[in-house]
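Team,

Forwarding the record for the chain on the shared tracking sheet. I've put the sequence and predicted structure together so nobody has to dig through attachments.
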Amino acid sequence: MKKIFTLLMVALTFQVYAIKLTFKVNMTGQDVSQGVYITGHVTQTAAGDWAFRPMTDEGNGFYSWDTTWTTVGDSLVFYFLTTPSWDNYLDFRETVPTDCDNSMELAGWEGDRALKVPSKDTILYHQFSSCETPLGIEKNNFRNSIHINVFPNPSNGFITIELADISNGANAEIFDISGKMVKEFVIPQKLTNIDLTDLPKSIYLLRITTDEGTISNKIQIK
């Protein structure tokens, strides 16, 4: 019996869990006649790095693409574009604003989006060439969508976070413009008051993770 228990423990120790990451981008107003693509370090196969991966048209201006990962905390670097070729690709790739360009900290260069692999399946919403997370997503159009409202914004450091459809609470992280996490906390209920007066006046990225996925929103303290 002891031997069987030991074998079970070893099997559990080395069990690999595949984390599903779903990238969604809102392309409303963009020329998508050649399609929409994601490129970057988004697979665990090195040979697949920086390939042009076509995204699926989900309607209402949204496109999506899935990947799986087995190592929590790994850094992913990526961006969206509207061409499947490196020829003149700069004319077709998104311009990632400095407020959400955190590839320097995670990868060593500037100009791209980046994230660390979370510990559970996550849906990541984006707006092409913007730090804003698309809001007003209809629940019946996108499974596991998240609705967030932060006010006042800009603020003097005291904000209220309104998170609809919250069931088991949420984890929140705040990143400065360099991509460094400067604060993390738990959101236990639909309306939560947060004191950020200890942070310098600046623009920050608020990232909230719930059982339904992940959403980000730019906030300003002045």
